[in-house]
From TrEMBL:
<feature type="binding site">
    <location>
        <position position="229"/>
    </location>
    <ligand>
        <name>Zn(2+) 3</name>
    </ligand>
</feature>
<keyword id="KW-0227">DNA damage</keyword>
<feature type="binding site">
    <location>
        <position position="259"/>
    </location>
    <ligand>
        <name>Zn(2+) 2</name>
    </ligand>
</feature>
<dbReference type="InterPro" id="IPR013022">
    <property type="entry name" value="Xyl_isomerase-like_TIM-brl"/>
</dbReference>
<feature type="binding site">
    <location>
        <position position="180"/>
    </location>
    <ligand>
        <name>Zn(2+) 3</name>
    </ligand>
</feature>
<feature type="binding site">
    <location>
        <position position="227"/>
    </location>
    <ligand>
        <name>Zn(2+) 3</name>
    </ligand>
</feature>
<feature type="binding site">
    <location>
        <position position="144"/>
    </location>
    <ligand>
        <name>Zn(2+) 1</name>
    </ligand>
</feature>
<comment type="function">
    <text>Endonuclease IV plays a role in DNA repair. It cleaves phosphodiester bonds at apurinic or apyrimidinic (AP) sites, generating a 3'-hydroxyl group and a 5'-terminal sugar phosphate.</text>
</comment>
<keyword id="KW-0378">Hydrolase</keyword>
<feature type="binding site">
    <location>
        <position position="177"/>
    </location>
    <ligand>
        <name>Zn(2+) 2</name>
    </ligand>
</feature>
<keyword id="KW-0540">Nuclease</keyword>
<dbReference type="InterPro" id="IPR036237">
    <property type="entry name" value="Xyl_isomerase-like_sf"/>
</dbReference>
<keyword id="KW-0862">Zinc</keyword>
<keyword id="KW-0255">Endonuclease</keyword>
<keyword id="KW-0234">DNA repair</keyword>
<protein>
    <recommendedName>
        <fullName>Probable endonuclease 4</fullName>
        <ecNumber>3.1.21.2</ecNumber>
    </recommendedName>
</protein>
<feature type="domain" description="Xylose isomerase-like TIM barrel">
    <location>
        <begin position="22"/>
        <end position="272"/>
    </location>
</feature>
Length: 282
């Protein structure tokens, strides 16, 4: 089963006026957007007419839509105020995502801040329950493991499994990022090792937990702990690693979202890798 391929679509200038136009220009089959400031605490606000128009246009084109939450959110923080503000922001993001017809909201796994990961893991379950209390059932919350720096709560597939076990809510899924996995030390080009890691994740957290893949190359070597995206095929992850992800039976059919500065070029490149993976060519 192939992957819908898309991009994170800039919406500055209007969710419909610019977002839809950019998506058409990039020739996407799926898309991700910010619906609020990615670097601030203000919860996303949507004009209902704009939300309805965006939802209808995406549905008419058959585009799955995903929302990326703000970067500041940290449900693992030892600071109670930070957790509460993160919960409140995510609750609004989930409701807004439903209004635009989004299938999921992506939130970073966060940081323990103080290095006490066991204590931070214990904070996750109540925080996630608060986010999902009365949340729309049509929108899936997807946790994105990060590149492994700054007391990251989840970066490798093993740590992502531990994270989901701590959350303890089967409906919560994962958004894997190829650049982040590479930076955290996963050898994506070693297909047997990668499939074994995905199988271990499934055994630890249950099947079907991956709901989205951010499909990015990396400027840095494996195990660098650095999150710097590169145009597809131009980085140190390269086509072999990206193609292995596209070919993984465990990830079949999951949308691939490019998050680079060269969206149109990289959407086309990703589509080629998907075709090659499906045909067994390289």
């Amino acid at each position: 089963m192939g992957h819908p391929v898309g991009a994170h679509v800039p919406v500055a200038g209007g969710l419909v006026r610019r977002g839809i136009a950019n998506a058409i220009e990039f020739e996407v089959e799926a898309l991700q957007v910010f619906i609020g400031s990615p670097r601030g605490w203000a919860p996303p606000r949507l004009d209902r007419a704009v939300a309805d128009d965006f939802r209808e246009q995406c549905a008419a084109r058959g585009w799955p839509v995903y929302v990326h939450a703000a970067y500041l959110l940290n449900l693992a923080s030892p600071v109670a105020e930070t957790v509460q503000r993160s919960v409140e922001n995510l609750r609004v993001a989930m409701a807004s995502a439903e209004r635009i017809g989004a299938a999921g909201v992506v939130v970073h796994a966060g940081s323990s801040i103080d290095g006490d990961r066991p204590a931070a893991l214990k904070r996750l379950a109540p925080a996630f329950r608060a986010v999902l209390d009365d949340a729309p059932s049509s929108v899936r919350l997807l946790v994105e493991p990060t590149a492994g720096g700054a007391n990251s709560m989840a970066s490798t597939l093993v740590s992502a499994g531990e994270y989901l076990q701590a959350v303890g809510i089967a409906e919560v899924g994962l958004c894997l990022d190829t650049c982040h996995m590479h930076a955290a030390g996963e050898d994506l080009a070693d297909r047997d090792a990668f499939e074994a890691s995905l199988a271990a994740l499934s055994a630890a957290a249950g099947p079907g937990r991956v709901g989205l893949v951010h499909f990015n190359d990396s400027k840095d070597p494996r195990d660098s702990r650095r999150d710097r995206h590169e145009a597809l095929g131009e980085g140190l992850l390269g086509d072999d690693g990206l193609r292995a992800v596209a070919a993984s039976p465990a990830l079949a059919g999951i949308p691939l979202i490019v998050e680079t500065a060269t969206q149109a070029r990289d959407v086309a490149h990703a589509k080629r890798l998907v075709r090659e993976a499906a045909s067994g060519t390289s």
